[in-house]
Amino acid sequence: MQAERENKIYCANCIHCKLIPAPAGAGRYYLRVRCDAGKWRKKLGEEKIYKYCTVASRSIDSCDCYEDMGDGPEFLRDLRSSLPAVDELYDAPQPLSR
Ligand code: SF4
After folding, report:
1. What is the number of other CB atoms lying within 10 angstroms of the CB of residue 33?
2. How crowded is residue 77: how many other Cβ atoms within 10 Å of its Cβ?
């Protein structure tokens, strides 16, 4: 059982797992993650995106597009400790004035 768990693929450690902003109006945004290899799909084929705060729990048993970022287990551990606990709203950066 433990060996099975260790062999799991964590999407957060894959080069195709991308962080994207999702506009929330008034210049604010949420953070979302998507698979740019197109592997995250709803039943009807529409792309599925997830809240950034859940990215560390995205894992699958196998994926033919997985490309390891080579960051090792420390990366996931650090990611888990730095992720927001809830879906946070961010303010867009203000343009620099000259
Ligand atoms: S390519 Fe596979 S392993 Fe990589 S993010 Fe997409 S589903 Fe996850």
Report:
1. 19
2. 11
* 44-61 pLDDT tens trace: 999 999 999 999 999 999
CB 56 within 8 A of CB 68: no
User: Which of 27, 15, 12 has its CA nearest to residue 82?
Assistant: 12
50 lines ligand 1 (CB under 6 A): no
Q: Are 33 and 52 in contact (CB under 8 A)?
A: yes
Question: Does any ligand 1 atom lie closer than 6 A to the CB of residue 11?
Answer: yes
Q: What is the pLDDT confidence band of residue 1, given thresholds at 50, 70 and 90?
A: very low
More confident residue, 55 or 5: 55
